[in-house]
Write a structure and sequence with these properties.
The chain has a domain of 30 residues. The protein has 2 helices and no strands. It is mostly helical. It is elongated. Keywords: Calcium, Calcium transport, Ion transport, Membrane, Mitochondrion, Mitochondrion inner membrane, Transit peptide, Transmembrane, Transmembrane helix, Transport. It is a single-pass membrane protein. Component of the uniplex complex. Interacts (via the transmembrane region) with MCU (via the first transmembrane region); the interaction is direct.
C-alpha cells in the first residue's frame, strides 16, 4: 500500500517533469539534484574549509614516501643477505 502511493506519486511527478523539460535536457527537472540546494530550494550551508590543505598533503606524502623507501630498502637487503633474491650478473652483459 505504501509502495503504491510512493510509486504513483513518483510517476505523476515524472510525467509533469517530462512535459516541462525541454527536448535537449537529459534529466527531467524535478529529478535533477544540486549540490548547493535542498529539495525545498533552501541553500545548504558553506562547506568546512581545511586551513592547511596543501601543507597537510605535503606533510602526509613526504613521510609516506620516506617510510616506504626505507621499508623496501631493508627488505631488499634482507632478501639479498639470505640469498632469497640475488640479481644475476649475466643480465648486465648487454654489450
Amino acid at each position: 500500500m505504501v509502495f503504491a502511493r510512493v510509486f504513483r506519486k513518483a510517476g505523476s511527478s515524472v510525467k509533469v517533469a517530462t512535459s516541462l523539460a525541454t527536448s535537449r535536457s537529459l534529466v527531467p527537472l524535478p529529478l535533477l539534484r544540486r549540490k548547493y540546494t535542498y529539495r525545498s530550494g533552501a541553500l545548504k550551508p558553506m562547506p568546512e574549509i581545511t586551513p592547511f590543505g596543501l601543507v597537510g598533503v605535503i606533510c602526509t606524502v613526504i613521510p609516506g614516501l620516506l617510510i616506504g623507501a626505507t621499508i623496501s630498502k631493508n627488505m631488499a637487503n634482507f632478501l639479498e643477505e639470505n640469498d632469497l633474491f640475488v640479481p644475476s650478473d649475466d643480465d648486465d652483459d648487454d654489450d
